């Protein structure tokens, strides 16, 4: 869906992206994380075709984003970390303005405005002025503007920053909804616990390079094998034997808790739960294992730093830098 190939971006005297390469699958939500200054915003700007790399390419399917940016923008939505809204315009006018900017034909514009408002839960706010909205609703309006042309891909830079817990929860539901409707999302954030709730992939950056890129769905092997966690109401000495007898693998038991690997979709997971209960186990909880993103992220950064940045520090920009628009 998106391919980023050997991207290099230089600010005056400073290399902010240094050979960044990765690919993003369709219908996924990629959490883009990294310490302050890692290069996340620069990467998103390059992916959106707003910053011209010194080297490398960004492809959206077959479209070279920097060669034919207008074609790319027709299929892409972008929300900057410092977005602006026209405070005096109503929600409907803000969306209509963006629909015009995206050259949506007038016959389809009203429907596009309604649809975007509906997707972001703003249908009852269409007549309200943007400047009167709460921060959470302004954020939703900004996202609605970014998707008014129904892009295949949306890039969001720190969409949760400054939102209260309730608004962040609502935002997570919105992002999940967009993915379920078929969009591909890349979301940068520092709030790892929430990213874990809705992201399907993790992309970790440090010093302008990719440290890690992996799926977050607990998949441990091709063919859909996943790691599960089971907690019993009380420990059972035969837990390991029971689990092995019902055909799950890599069983690890600790007191009333067990971790194991099993294959299959949601129906197979339901059947597995039924068999655990039929085997007489007092199941208190059973779910796909969480990856504990925060710990994994901190360990990754620590290991990378302990290796003394096996990667050499980013080089200073060798030539005149590309301008940031
Ligand atoms: N206009 C600029 N001129 C020079 N250097 C810049 C400019 N913008 C960013 N940088 C530098 O490039 C590096 C990457 O910045 P970027 O904003 O992409 O990082 P980030 O990962 O998004 O950071 P944060 O999490 O703080 O938003 C930083 O070291 C930053 O200081």
UniProtKB/TrEMBL annotation:
Top-level taxon in the UniProt lineage: Bacteria
Coiled coil: none
Database matches in Pfam families: ABC_tran
Stretches that traverse the bilayer: none
UniProt GO molecular function: ATP binding; ATP hydrolysis activity
Residues of the ABC transporter domain: 2-232
Alphabetical UniProt keywords: ATP-binding, Nucleotide-binding, Transport
The keyword Nucleotide-binding is assigned to this record: yes
Nucleotide-binding in keyword set: yes
PROSITE patterns, sorted: ABC_TRANSPORTER_2 (PS50893)
Family the UniProt entry places it in: Belongs to the ABC transporter superfamily.
Name recorded for this polypeptide: ABC transporter
Protein source organism: Hypericibacter terrae
């Amino acid at each position: 869906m998106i391919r980023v190939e050997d991207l290099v971006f230089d600010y005056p005297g400073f290399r902010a992206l240094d050979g960044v390469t990765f690919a993003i699958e369709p219908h996924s939500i990629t959490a883009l994380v990294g310490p302050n200054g890692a290069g996340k915003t620069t990467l998103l700007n390059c992916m959106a075709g707003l910053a011209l790399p010194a080297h490398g390419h960004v492809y959206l399917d077959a479209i070279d984003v920097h060669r034919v940016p207008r074609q790319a923008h027709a299929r892409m939505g972008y929300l900057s970390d410092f977005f602006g809204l026209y405070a005096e315009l109503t929600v409907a006018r803000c969306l209509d303005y963006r629909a015009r900017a995206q050259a949506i034909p007038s016959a389809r514009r009203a429907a596009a405005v309604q649809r975007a408002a509906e997707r972001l839960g703003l249908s009852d706010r269409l007549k309200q002025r943007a400047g009167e909205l709460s921060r959470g609703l302004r954020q939703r309006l900004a996202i609605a503007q970014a998707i008014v042309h129904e892009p295949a891909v949306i890039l969001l830079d720190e969409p949760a920053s400054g939102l209260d817990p309730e608004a962040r929860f609502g935002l997570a539901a919105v992002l999940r909804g967009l993915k379920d409707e078929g969009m591909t999302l890349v979301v940068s954030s520092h709030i790892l616990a929430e990213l874990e709730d809705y992201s399907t992939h993790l992309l970790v950056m440090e010093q302008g390079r990719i440290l890690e890129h992996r799926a977050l769905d607990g998949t441990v092997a091709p063919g859909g094998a996943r790691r599960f966690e089971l907690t019993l109401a009380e420990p059972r000495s035969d837990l390991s034997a029971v689990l092995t007898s019902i055909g799950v693998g890599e069983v690890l038991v600790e007191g009333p808790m067990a971790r194991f690997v099993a294959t299959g979709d949601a129906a197979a997971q339901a059947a597995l739960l039924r068999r655990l209960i039929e085997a007489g186990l007092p199941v208190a909880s059973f779910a796909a294992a969480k990856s504990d993103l925060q710990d994994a992220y901190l360990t990754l950064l620590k290991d990378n730093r302990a290796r003394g940045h096996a990667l050499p520090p980013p080089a200073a920009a060798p030539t005149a830098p590309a301008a940031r628009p």
